Amino acid sequence: MSLKENSKCLAFHGPLLYEARILKVHHSGEDPGDDEEIPEDLTEQECFYIHYQGWKSSWDEWIGKERIREYDEQNLALKKQLIEEAREARSAAKKTGSGVKSKKTDSKRKKPSGPAAAAGSQLYASPGKVEATGPRIVVHIPQQLKAILVDDWEAITKDKKLVELPCSSNVDKLLTYFYEHTSSNEPSPVAQSQLCEYCDGLRLYFDRALPVMLLYRFERLQLAENLDEPPHSIYGAMHLLRLLSMLPQVVACTTMDDQSCEVIVGYTDKLLLWLLQQQDKLFSKSLYVNTGSQYEGLALGM
């Protein structure tokens, strides 16, 4: 990457890419120093302190490799494509939408092994550790869920709201429900085992990825106030959807083989469709709570 101080770049902020400038670069292994406000989860990897062009300096932040792109024609085209997809998603979401209830029972956890577990273990180690030269995958996010991601971005960054924590339907429960809903339709015990491995691997990776790449700057103070439990037991569907939308970038930072990629894509597509079926229940506007001026001042000062 030709990403260095004072150079232009593109950076993900929510589901879209924005033009930005790199103000500082922290390299893996460097001592951040006492005056550097680098989030703890980014100190052991290469990360970038950026300023979004046209935004107030209060939005300047440190981000990892997963959220930054070189300023070139290919990525500018991607920026334009994401904007168009977001507009289409909003239009489609106004015309469609449905939700169904799922069966809720307890399931036994199995120790991950095999292709799905191998995929999960590589994901677990991937944030910021490997250059984005790995396999490229396509995750099929339904238009309604794309619109939800855009609305989520606006709720956090524009309306200064937060997802209320802890979520009653946390990631742990959601993945358990998804496993129960899907496993009965799997063609063989082997496929059921792979599904279980996928869910367990995703649960582990969610905990690793959340503080590094799934939070907006405005949410970091909220995380600091909720460190007693693992993220999968506190956060819910909205943050899980953020992770699923970023899987193509995540997988590109791994050395995952084709078989593992197929497992990831197959079950991720099924999980997204299942979330779509539950959208009225899982992505209600009542998930968000307002914040006061005191929180806003502290959060944007972190």
From TrEMBL:
**Position of the signal peptide:** none
User: Where found, per UniProt?
Assistant: Nucleus
Q: Which residues form the Chromo domain?
A: 17-84
Task: Extract one GO cellular component term from the record.
Answer: NuA4 histone acetyltransferase complex
> Which PROSITE patterns does the record cross-reference, listed alphabetically?
MRG (PS51640)
Keywords, ordered alphabetically: Chromatin regulator, Nucleus, Transcription, Transcription regulation
Q: Spell out the SUPFAM superfamilies in the cross-references.
A: Chromo domain-like
- Single Gene Ontology BP term? chromatin remodeling
The main location is nucleus
**Which residue ranges are recorded for the region named Disordered?**
89-123
One Pfam family this chain carries?
Answer: MRG
InterPro entries in UniProt: Chromo-like_dom_sf (IPR016197), Chromo/chromo_shadow_dom (IPR000953), MRG (IPR008676), MRG_C_sf (IPR038217), MRG_dom (IPR026541), MSL3_chromo-like (IPR053820)
Q: Which family does it belong to?
A: Belongs to the MRG family.
Q: What is the protein's name according to its record?
A: Chromatin modification-related protein EAF3
